[in-house]
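Reviewers of the previous submission asked for a worked example of the structure-prediction workflow described in the proposal, so we include one complete record here. The input consisted solely of the amino acid sequence. No template or homolog information was supplied to the procedure at any stage.
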Amino acid sequence: MNTADGSALVDRMDIEKLISMLGRCLDEREFEGLRSLFTPDATVTTPGGTATGHDALVDQARARHSVDEGLQHIITNLLVDLERDRASVRANLLVSFARSGPADPLPFLLGEVYRFDVRRTTEGWRISALRSTPVWTLNQPRTSSVVSS
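From that input alone, the workflow returned the following structure tokens.
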């Protein structure tokens, strides 16, 4: 493996870790941790709305992910298209919202496609844009507060 291949592999691993950390922050409700994953001018667009900048995206995440006791984001099948200091990423998302926790008999399940724009900053790779597109749902949410991750 040449040096260029090795650095591209490290970049891909760093990007995959960045996106995995997004799921962890949302699942564990560490909303302030999102600031270290996104660029200060990042835009997040979901069916729940669009947020731009750290304060807005933290507020949006807190509003969308604070109701249910059980929450889990499974982000898979990352396809990273790397171009020097920028990359675009497509991933599948399965997110479950269990209102009453692990014993919830009818958790709301949502399948989405995530599309990310990421760029290398002086602090490392950061998400500059996130767009989610719902593909399917199972068990409609019991309130309108949960529409999308």
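The longest strand covers residues 124-138. We consider this example representative of the routine output the project will generate in years two and three.
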